[in-house]
Specification:
Pfam families: PBP_dimer, Transpeptidase. By secondary structure, the chain is α+β, with helices and mostly antiparallel strands. Helix content is 35%, strand content 21%. The strands form 8 sheets. Strands 2, 3, 4, 5, 10, 21 and 22 form a 7-stranded mixed sheet that branches. The chain has a 5-stranded antiparallel sheet with strand order 12-11-26-25-24. A 3-stranded antiparallel sheet has the order 1-8-9, with no helix packed on it. Strand 21 and strand 22 form a beta hairpin. The longest helix is centred in the N-terminal third of the chain and has 50 residues.
């Protein structure tokens, strides 16, 4: 009977429910947990099949096979005629070594070191006296025995451009050197006449690309996961580092070829399966005309030889209506076929678009970008006319100086020239600093106040391409140094000195674009260095058309007033057969023994139907009329011979006489 005591006082059905309730809850929890687990498994299986499946299949198929990229044939860069190759790829035979063994242990490394010494001796024997031949230590470095730069299955480049004797030797002895291969590849060559070398740029091995070089960051990030062999960069592949070589890297490169190689568990090759040849890159037809470019380069070289302090010079010639840059010279230059960084570190960059010193003695010499000086005065007058600061016929009494501030500081004209009563037009011709200060700088300040006055000046400058990107198809463009934005001086001082070109530094390219705007009455044309891109068969893939970046609005009367003022006498243009507009400039930097006078000159011709605009800068050249204008004259003459400033090519004078 005791066994029934526990049910005393409780109906049988209630006790049943009490026992079943917790059992049902546990069962429900079990089914729910099972549902969740199976749902996760089903989801994971679906994810593996449909999402990760292709990746796993690809990894499995390539586990024992690797594609070794073969560098594509880089496309050429031609001058404007499409006939003269300024940069091109030339086939050469190169020596590679394929590592069939793991040389990371000491025993194997000794074998590799012996091979390196033997190869170095062979190179020395075939090239006596040539110090550029790789020695044993350099060869060991190129073999990358520790696989720090490349996988073990990737052939190591030991030496490019083998001589005929070296090719014959290694082909004959290849059975004695396991893993040695003589392969054809391409090396980059440049016109021996050194045509616009900083514009064209240069190439270097992909493995030398800095991680900070933004043009290649995406390529480096995707290199490990890139499935398209044609887009894989090999470590020894030559890529653009500057100039057009860098700007048009993607177009010039083409597509990699590749060798499919069987590998073992150590990532070392066991044999070659398949060879897919590389595809040639596109060719560029530049706007640079070789004849005009060489004339510009020679003109700068001739002038800086005559000048006592000048050691550099820069010039840009740009077509007014198309934006085509027919010449862009940065001198001195260098031989791109003989690269030696220590010798060329101050000349390999493009001084027409970048700012850098000419040598190690930075305090003594001006950089490539200088204060623009009086060439700003046509724009100062335009601003004054548009803002109603004065009228075209209004006279100003020029005493040879203007007075600034309460202390009565005098800012003088060049040579303290007294010009008497002058109009705006005459102020440009006589290059009056006093007029610009009193009639433009001070009056702009009076109209807008300090902050807004400087802002208004800055607005005009940038609308003319000064202080902003020109849009030139080159990397690393310097945008200018706007000293009038620096608030350590009063707004009066900044606007006064800015009005005659002593408060901002701009590149020669920016000055050329500004000059085209003076010529075509306000259209800021996008400058181009490439006019066409063609495929390997010569078909035009892309053609660059003239593009107006922005347009400023001034009345024809204002434009004409400025053009009539751009008539400063320059003896270097004596006998020039066209009416032309010009403005000389001399900017000053520093004081006392460190004072530098930089020559600047802008011009366009013909005056009434402008075809070409030219800007020239000669740091430490003195007066622009003396140092820079002769360079511009020779550029105009060269353009007239090749294209004709009136549309009719004149040909060379000696050809006419014949």
């Amino acid at each position: 009977m005791p066994m029934f005591k526990r049910f005393k006082g409780k109906p049988p059905n209630e006790d049943e429910n009490a026992v079943n309730k917790p059992s049902t809850a546990r069962l429900n929890m079990f089914f729910f947990a099972a549902f969740v687990i199976f749902s996760i498994l089903i989801f994971r299986l679906a994810f593996v099949q449909f999402v990760e499946g292709p990746e796993l299949t690809y990894m499995e198929s390539t586990r024992n096979t690797k594609d070794i990229p073969l560098a594509p044939v880089r496309g050429p860069i031609y001058d404007a005629t499409g006939k003269v190759a300024l940069a091109y790829s030339e086939p050469v035979q190169s020596l590679y070594v394929l590592l069939y063994e793991d040389y990371r242990n000491d025993d194997r490394r000794q074998e590799a070191e012996e091979l390196a010494q033997e190869l170095a001796d062979i190179f020395k024997r075939f090239n006596p006296g040539d110090e550029k031949q790789p020695d044993a230590q350099e060869i060991i470095k190129r073999l990358d025995l520790d696989h720090q730069k490349t996988f073990g299955y990737v052939p190591r480049l030991v030496k490019s451009d083998l001589s005929t004797e070296e090719i014959a030797y290694f082909m004959e002895k290849k059975t004695e050197y396991p893993g040695i291969m003589v392969l054809e590849e391409n090396v980059r060559r440049y016109d021996p006449d050194r045509v616009a070398v900083q514009v064209i740029g240069y190439t270097r091995e992909f493995k030398r690309v800095p991680t900070t070089m933004k043009q290649y960051q995406t390529i480096m990030q995707q290199s490990a996961s890139q499935r398209d062999p044609g887009l894989v960069y090999s470590q020894d592949e030559k890529v653009g580092f500057d100039g057009l070589e860098l700007q048009y890297q993607q177009e010039l490169r083409g597509r990699s070829g590749y060798q499919s190689i069987d590998i073992d568990s150590r990532n070392l090759p066991t044999g070659t399966m398949e060879l897919t040849p590389p595809e040639k890159g596109y060719s560029l037809i530049s706007t640079i005309n070789k004849e005009i470019q060489l004339a510009a380069q020679q003109a700068i070289t001739d002038e800086i030889r005559k000048l006592p302090k000048a050691i550099t010079g820069y010039a840009v010639a740009m077509e007014v209506d198309t934006g085509n840059v027919v010449a862009m010279a940065s001198m001195p230059d260098y031989d791109p076929n003989d690269w030696d960084y220590d010798k060329i570190k101050f000349v390999f960059r493009n001084g027409t678009t970048e700012s850098f010193p000419p040598n190690d003695n930075k305090p003594r010499h001006a950089e490539s970008v200088v204060l623009l000086g009086s060439v700003i005065k046509p724009l100062s007058v335009l601003i004054g006319l548009k803002e109603g600061l004065f009228t075209a016929g209004q006279t100003y009494h020029d005493k040879g100086y203007a007075v600034l501030g309460k202390d009565g500081r005098q800012v003088k004209n060049s040579h303290s020239a007294y010009n008497g009563n002058i109009t705006a037009r005459r102020a440009i011709e006589k290059s009056s600093n006093a007029f610009m200060i009193d009639m433009v700088g001070k009056r702009l300040l009076s109209k807008y106040g300090g902050v807004k006055g400087v802002d208004k000046w800055d607005e005009y400058m940038k609308s003319f391409g000064l202080g902003v990107s020109t849009g030139i198809d080159l990397p690393n463009e310097f945008l200018g140094r706007l000293e009038y934005r620096e608030e350590h001086e009063t707004a009066l001082t900044r606007l006064a000195f800015a009005s005659f070109g002593q408060q901002a530094k701009y590149t020669t390219m920016q000055l050329a674009q500004y000059t085209t705007m003076l010529a075509n009455k306000g259209k800021r044309m996008e400058p181009h260095l490439v006019k066409e891109i063609r495929d390997a068969k010569g078909n035009v893939v892309k053609k660059f058309k003239p593009k107006v970046l922005n347009e400023v609005q001034f009345t024809d009367a204002h434009w004409n007033e400025v053009h009539k003022g751009m008539v400063t006498k320059v003896s270097s243009f004596d006998g020039f057969p066209y009416e032309f507009a010009r403005k000389t400039g001399t900017s000053e930097q520093g004081a006392g023994p460190n004072k530098k006078e930089n020559g600047v000159f802008i011009a366009f011709a013909p005056r009434d139907n402008p075809k070409l605009a030219v800007a020239v800068v000669v740091p430490e050249g003195g007066f622009g009329s003396v140092s820079a204008s002769p360079i511009a004259r020779k550029i105009f003459d060269a353009y007239d011979e090749v294209y004709g400033l009136d549309g009719i090519p004149k040909g060379k004078k000696d050809q006419k006489q014949e």
